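User: tokens in, sequence out, please.
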């Protein structure tokens, strides 16, 4: 009998090759919405919470504080609830209603910050609260347990499920844990695998994908593991999100649309390939924005 936490990972690959016309291009989406918390962030959250418990930095009533744009907060709230660890989550006030309510449903306290100050201010406030001595940050942006989760699970799963035939891996970049950990593992298996990151075009706002100011660039980001970066507009991400739903039956969020849009653009310049992109969450937490 599995516990809830045993169900994190081992998500399926689904064939979405019909989104493009080249029969020699195989395109697969890794359905991270199948995780119990509904997103790829379950992996990192589990790794970070367990790591903090093992090191003794949380427990015995210590409260976690974390800045989040949504999915990491939901995952932390779910996992912390199973360990009876109290959580305060800080996020911009323009986050979707579904995300806020889901975090609160798991028992987390949610603090909303001004939308115009972005998640960068949420991160500053989380740091101030930790500095007060009353909270402990997991700090997904600088916590090596974040990328290690993907090095130990996401990367090996992709290599296994494609029988080592993957040629390109595409991932949106937020905290950069997914691309750093998965990229490192896949590069170790073959230096022919290309790792492709996705970021928003200037002026675009895509939940889960960031173009960080230099001072806020995640400390865990390893640019040597990223072979190419593709910029995607908000309109392109939204349009591809709709295509995933209406043409493939895959209802995912905007960042998944962005990653898939980048994968399709990548495919246009290739003759033959097996591309895997991260479908990082489910679309039901974005319904209020559609």
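Assistant: Sequence out:
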């Amino acid at each position: 009998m599995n516990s809830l936490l045993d169900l994190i990972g081992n998500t399926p690959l689904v064939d979405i090759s019909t989104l493009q016309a080249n029969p020699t291009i195989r395109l697969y989406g890794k359905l991270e919405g199948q995780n119990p918390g509904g997103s790829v962030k379950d992996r990192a959250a589990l790794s970070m919470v367990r790591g903090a418990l093992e090191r003794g930095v949380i427990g015995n009533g210590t409260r976690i504080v974390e800045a989040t744009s949504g999915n990491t907060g939901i995952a932390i709230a779910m996992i912390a609830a199973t360990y009876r660890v109290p959580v305060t989550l800080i996020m911009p006030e323009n986050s979707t209603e579904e995300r806020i309510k889901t975090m609160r449903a798991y028992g987390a306290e949610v603090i909303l910050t001004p939308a115009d100050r972005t998640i960068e201010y949420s991160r500053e406030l989380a740091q101030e609260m930790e500095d007060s001595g009353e909270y402990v940050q997991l700090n997904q942006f600088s916590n090596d347990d974040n990328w290690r989760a993907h090095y130990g699970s996401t990367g090996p799963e992709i290599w296994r499920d494609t029988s080592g035939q993957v040629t390109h891996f595409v991932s949106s970049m937020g905290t950069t844990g997914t691309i750093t950990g998965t990229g490192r593992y896949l590069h170790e298996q073959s230096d022919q695998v290309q790792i492709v990151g996705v970021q928003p075009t200037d002026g675009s706002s895509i939940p889960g994908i960031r173009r960080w100011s230099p001072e806020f660039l995640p400390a865990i980001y390893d640019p040597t593991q990223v072979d190419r970066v593709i910029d995607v507009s908000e309109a392109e991400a939204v349009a591809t999100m709709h295509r995933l739903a209406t043409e493939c039956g895959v209802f995912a969020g905007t960042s998944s649309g962005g990653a898939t849009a980048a994968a399709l653009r990548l495919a246009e310049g290739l003759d033959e390939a097996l591309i895997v992109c991260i479908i990082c969450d489910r679309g039901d937490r974005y319904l209020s924005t559609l």
